[in-house]
Design goal:
By secondary structure, the protein is of the alpha/beta class. Helix content is 35%, strand content 15%. The strands form 4 sheets. A 7-stranded mixed sheet has the order 2-10-9-8-5-3-4. A two-stranded parallel ribbon has the order 1-12. Strand 3, helix 4 and strand 4 form a beta-alpha-beta unit.
Amino acid sequence: MRVYNFGAGPAAIPEPVLRDLQTALWDWEGTGAGIAEINHRSDAVLSMLAQTEQLLRDALTIPDNYQIILTPIPARAHFGLLAMNLAKPQALAQYIDSGHWAQLAMKEAKKYCQVSIAATASATDYRCYPARATWQVDNQAAYLHITDNETIEGLACHERLTGTEVPIVADMTSSLLTRPLSINDYGMIYASAQKNLGMAGLCVIIIRDDLLTRVDETKLPSACHYATLAKQHSLNHTPPVFACYALNRTLHWLKAEGGVDVMVARLHEKAKLIYDLFDKCPQFYRNSIAPTSRSLLNIVCDLPSAVLTQEFLKATDDQGMIGLKGHGSRGGLRISLYNAVSVEATQRLAAFMQDFALRNG
């Protein structure tokens, strides 16, 4: 029996996608070989990669002056690589300090360029995302980096990022494909795949053409140089073909479901089920994030005691609901509502949570 997976990542994958992957791993499109065995420069694989790029362009309405890179280098490695590709060693890069992942991104960037903080959530103990109006942006900066959804703190930016001269670089590992985007608001978007894009082992980069010319290829290994990867259509080295195929099938599933407009509507419906419960039981499910900054994708809370938390986790596991334990640095509970998590699954969890609070409150 399949369980309901609320894990933060690797996360739930749509069942039709899993079935496609299962078949393709054994015999892809009648070739008699699995997709993980077929040469990455064969016509079939090249066609699949081209189709994957087009599906992503269609899903997010990505303009022609943006390139798409599919690479096995994880988003965490790009914390440093994007600084190496977009900023000279003495250049300034700015960051929005929104929490755990933003801080890790800053730490890596500091190895390669100068870093300053344009805004921070520290004054609110990371309970409120810095309002766009408070950002102190230096127009001479090479880029401004944001993490739009902090998966550990349960904190998110819900404002549109307009009116900035400096290119915005966004880590959207947990949010890409969950809502419509105005791609022109960003210079670069990057996201590891294990949340909403399929499976671990792939990172997607969407980058504007003019940012590809900032650093000469001789300054970086070719496999880490964005312009080289874009020019060679992600084929500078063997791409993670199976993970790319997982993205391909996920994009087909997304299209069949109605696209990102449907995903964001479902996300609001799912998140409302949980936050309404928090508001009804504030002394039992304790969430201190400012309502305007609440993440819809990663909802965190604390129960009245560690004992109750362990009882909750054991009971949900027995009920076939997994992945609800909070991050090790924070504790408590974390409910991740990525695209593959259904409204039905969320309704079942909300009903259980209400009953658990009534029995133990």
